[in-house]
Design goal:
With 217 residues, this protein is an alpha+beta fold. Helix content is 58%, strand content 8%. It has helices at residues 13-25, 41-46, 66-76, 87-113, 119-137, 150-154, 156-169, 180-191, 193-198, 202-213; strands at residues 4-8, 30-33, 55-58, 61-64. Helix 1 (13-25) runs parallel beside helix 3.
Length: 217
């Protein structure tokens, strides 16, 4: 019998993408909630380099970094493929996943969370990067065409978490009027019954994020 554990945080987009991938595959797992202020010995043992969540432990063997975990999941359990079979298409998916994780996430932090400095320049850079992303999104209804795929799950950070964070901070860069293509994709993605069922409840998530960002209700 396989033993599958996920060390993560309930409201984290990184943990959530791993859980969604496992659930799409129909794979049962145990979720271990981590306190990032007091990380468990198991987390530090399984991810001694970065000491971060999420970590997937499959029969005692750890896999770290959410996008790499998702690839591992897709290669280990073949049902309901997340990645395309064509090598070129797979390379393109990996490129855009890295773009979201490395470029978009960094720009969101700089534009929405930074204090002082040239915030206007940070917002401009975020807008430029979102424009690039929108040009790729609008090619299909979803990244995977008609069904939720690897990039859609990665992109949930943009579709679900960013609008919530913007509302909490009262700082809006990603708006429907400026980026209608991103919102059209997000509407389809967030209306998917499976995705809707497996996202963290917004009413529970907002207080957690408010506390994290030091914003009073």
């Amino acid at each position: 019998m396989q033993e599958i554990k996920v060390y993560g945080v309930w409201g984290s987009p990184f943990s959530r993408r791993v859980e969604i991938a496992l659930k799409m595959k129909g794979v049962e797992y145990e979720f271990i909630e981590e306190d990032l202020e007091n990380k468990s010995d198991e987390l530090l043992m399984y991810n001694p380099v970065h000491k971060k969540i999420p970590v997937l432990v499959h029969n005692g063997k750890p896999v770290v970094e959410s996008s790499l975990i998702m690839e591992y999941i897709d290669e280990t359990w073949k049902q309901n493929a997340l990645l395309p079979t064509d090598p070129y298409d797979r390379a393109q998916v990996r490129f855009w996943a890295k773009f979201i994780d490395d470029k978009i996430m960094a720009s969101v932090g700089a534009a929405l969370l930074s204090k002082g400095g040239d915030i206007s320049k940070a917002k401009e850079e975020m807008q430029e990067l979102l424009t690039v992303l929108e040009s790729e999104i609008t090619k299909n209804k979803l990244f995977g065409g008609d069904k939720v795929s690897f990039l859609d799950i990665i992109g949930l950070f943009v579709a679900y978490w960013v609008p919530i964070v913007q509302d909490i901070l009262g700082n809006h860069v990603l708006t429907r009027d400026k980026f209608p293509g991103i919102y059209e994709w997000a509407d389809v993605l967030l209306d998917d019954a499976f995705i809707k069922k497996n996202l963290p409840d917004k009413d529970k998530l907002i207080p957690i994020l408010r506390s994290r960002f030091g914003v009073k209700p």
